[in-house]
Amino acid sequence: MCVIFSVPIIDICSLPRNRLQGKVAVITGGASGLGKATAHEFIQNGAQVIIADINTELGSKVAKDLGPLAHFVQCDVTDEAQVAGAVEAAVGLHGKLDIMYNNAGIVGPVLPPSIAELDLDTFDRVMRINVWGTVAGIKHAARFMIPTGSGSILCTSSMSGLLGGLGPHSYTISKYTIPGIVKFVASELCRTGVRINCISPGPIPTPLSVGQLAQFYPGATTEQVAQIVNGLGELKGAKGEEMDVAQAAVYLASDESKYITGHNLVVDGGFTCYKDIKL
Ligand code: NAD
């Protein structure tokens, strides 16, 4: 006998929009690009969001535009007191912290010399924001989440943390580190009810990626460089948009992923599966 299963096709627009109802989130680097899109998507799904960013002007504007469910807190992730302050602001305003998204990041200088000439001050700066800042966010979120026995911590790695040669030395090393931190912390926290996962985005046009590639294309407009960024991903599959990462973050932040921890979710349209990546 042959049984034919009918698989329903999921229209992403028809997914329920209350997947984070009543949850409280802090997003570092929430004033721009992927963090900003995620703040928007979290709010669309019923969350209250603290945008924690070093850029006060932009962060305040973004929070205002997002409406009453968003607040801005000035936060440089290289300053432990400010990271603690962002978490405490969430708890002070809303009485709890459910989601901590350690997303702030920089690339650093684009054309590094050979590793033999690596500028270790630059390396320090990139590691301080991308790695130290992430660890500080994990630490201060865990302080509040462990006693409550729940919470979802998200971190941002990159396609550059999966393959060599996709970014400057410092950036690549910093992004390789993130899935390791996530695995290690998940092994500790899995008995506490607190989950931790990371997302590795592929090329998606944002001020960070467009700014990085623009240096290879002097004279090109922002739109032209954004098309080039998209072209990198499109070569291997779908064209990446900020919302692709934001929706992955909603899933990992929500209780739908309650049995997932220590995972690195690659959101790259197949970019890192392709055998012959040329930038
Ligand atoms: P973006 O430049 O648009 O946003 C980064 C945000 O981080 C900005 O608002 C900036 O003000 C903030 N920030 C920088 N330094 C900070 C600090 N010290 N403290 C607090 N905030 C700080 O970049 P994006 O593309 O949205 O990048 C977000 C994350 O995604 C980064 O970790 C980046 O490495 C990662 N990523 C991006 C791509 C991509 O193609 N856009 C691909 C892979 C990974």
TrEMBL record:
<keyword id="KW-0560">Oxidoreductase</keyword>
<dbReference type="InterPro" id="IPR036291">
    <property type="entry name" value="NAD(P)-bd_dom_sf"/>
</dbReference>
<dbReference type="Pfam" id="PF13561">
    <property type="entry name" value="adh_short_C2"/>
</dbReference>
<dbReference type="InterPro" id="IPR002347">
    <property type="entry name" value="SDR_fam"/>
</dbReference>
<dbReference type="GO" id="GO:0016491">
    <property type="term" value="F:oxidoreductase activity"/>
</dbReference>
<protein>
    <submittedName>
        <fullName>Sex determination protein tasselseed-2</fullName>
    </submittedName>
</protein>
<comment type="similarity">
    <text>Belongs to the short-chain dehydrogenases/reductases (SDR) family.</text>
</comment>
